[in-house]
């Protein structure tokens, strides 16, 4: 077992192996809840630097609203984050995860369940950030406008119902790839199961638009675009096919734990590599 | 709080409010697992009659395989069912629920988590079985062949990732309807969030085919069709549009807890009602 720190809303720090969820918690029985995950860097002196916490709490709020859950009590969650980090002193990179579930099925007017955990960033993530990833495209089954005016499909909502995302990852692994790029029925790339896709073409950084596509509004991608624009590097939201990606100057999967990971191979085809480019993308995202 | 009975695989009966899941259980963090639910009828003498347990355990096995989980140990689960029912003596109808999760993220080679619960059948379900339901159609975002050759989309797998199903139910409730009928992008009806759809036309019972549509293989629908065929009542698997349903002789949502519930209103349009027909459907399904 790796070292972990765990804190429960309204309860504080608990033992990392503690059982914290009832058998009828809707987070378990229905995947009915939402989460956020971001990176925490802990110094040798035990100090913590959390990436983009306000943005993650804002997206947490958005997910909660979309699920008809009560308002996220931002002050209480900031306090819970301080509490769980008070129990974490492992130097290096870790993942801070925040989870809300609708609470217990047998207590419909009872409280939500709130949990914060800290775990060391996986070796595999650090390696993929450094060396890049091989990716296969997999159909997501939906068109690029499937989520327009269909709030019940929970487009852009970071729910706990990630079974398809993990199944796609397992499928990729079984086929010798590191990760997946989901595609629409009308032929565009969407996102990876736990990362956004960003590409460089025409001296401009691009990513898939959110909204009707149903993809998650990526905090790492937005931080990257903001830093790029601030450096005079233009950015753009656009739909692109897999074949278009093959002729760009670089493609990356970006997420808050692993950071940016260059796609070196897409569906078995090696992508062009401009030395130094990934360093720049990493610098833009603070990795 | 309603009375509940809870048992955990490898542990036995636990207190019904007991916390049984760690904060990094993949059932919580990813909705990564599967479940089954069926009806148990408890007699005044405390005896139990479980509906279609072998069929539910077979579908549990199918879901586990599709998720790359270990084989369901049928003997152990039969024993767990006996154990949890040993703690249940409330006369009347209840729901027996079985859940498997991939276990703890921090223990990749550790055991799965297995939980069995018994809860009284909701008043609302009994009422809807008796009085029928008003239903609205909602787009599922996928075509009728979206799940063909795409195992990572987990078509036909009863996963714990039900956030869209419950969100659709909430959307219906907010719009004054009792339930939802999902539709494909090419205009066919699929299933309800937790029930199959069955309709009577041309003196034949129909339902949506499984497989490429991605819908769940309904045990209640199959029991209904088997009983109907045995009574000389023909059945058929076919795609139908919502408009086709409006001119049938009857439409029902069938599931293992609520049983069959006639759709009396579809998208605000009253459906024809042949007295006695729902009684026959209930008899065919054993409700």
Automatic annotation (TrEMBL), chains A, B:
Record keyword Coiled coil present: no
Alphabetical list of InterPro entries matching this protein: Aminotrans_IV (IPR001544), Aminotransferase-like (IPR036038), BCAT-like_C (IPR043132), BCAT-like_N (IPR043131), Class-IV_PLP-Dep_Aminotrnsfr (IPR050571)
Domain of life: Bacteria
Pfam families reported in the protein's UniProt record: Aminotran_4
Top enzyme category: lyase
One GO MF term: 4-amino-4-deoxychorismate lyase activity
The UniProt record lists the keyword Transport: no
Key words of the record: Lyase
EC number, as in UniProt: 4.1.3.38
Family that this chain belongs to: Belongs to the class-IV pyridoxal-phosphate-dependent aminotransferase family.
Name of the molecule in the record: Aminodeoxychorismate lyase
Organism: Jatrophihabitans telluris
């Amino acid at each position: 077992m790796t070292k972990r720190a765990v804190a429960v809303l309204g309860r504080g720090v608990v033992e990392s192996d503690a059982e914290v969820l009832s058998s009828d918690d809707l987070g378990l029985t229905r995947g009915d809840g939402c989460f956020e995950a971001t990176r925490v860097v802990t110094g040798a002196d035990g100090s913590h630097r959390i990436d983009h916490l306000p943005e993650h709490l804002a997206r947490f709020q958005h997910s909660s609203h979309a699920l008809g859950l009560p308002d996220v009590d931002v002050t209480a969650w900031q306090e819970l984050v301080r509490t769980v980090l008070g129990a974490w002193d492992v130097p290096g990179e870790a993942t801070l995860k925040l989870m809300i579930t609708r609470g217990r099925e047998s207590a419909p007017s009872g409280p939500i369940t709130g949990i914060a955990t800290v775990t060391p960033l996986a070796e595999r993530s650090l390696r993929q950030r450094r060396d890049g990833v091989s990716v296969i495209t997999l159909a997501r089954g939906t068109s690029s406008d499937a989520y327009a005016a269909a709030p019940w499909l929970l487009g852009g909502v970071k729910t706990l119902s990630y079974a398809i995302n993990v199944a796609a990852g397992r499928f990729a692994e079984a086929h010798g790839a590191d990760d997946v790029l989901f595609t629409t029925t009308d032929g565009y790339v969407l996102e990876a199961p736990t990362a956004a896709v960003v590409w460089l073409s025409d001296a401009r950084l691009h990513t898939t638009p959110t909204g009707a596509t149903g993809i998650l509004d990526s905090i790492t991608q937005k931080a990257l675009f903001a830093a790029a624009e601030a450096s005079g590097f233009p950015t753009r939201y656009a739909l692109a096919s897999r074949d278009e990606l093959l002729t760009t100057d670089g493609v990356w999967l970006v997420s808050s734990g692993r950071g940016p990971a260059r796609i070196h191979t897409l569906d078995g085809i090696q992508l062009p590599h401009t030395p130094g480019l990934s360093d720049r993308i990493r610098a833009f995202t603070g990795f």
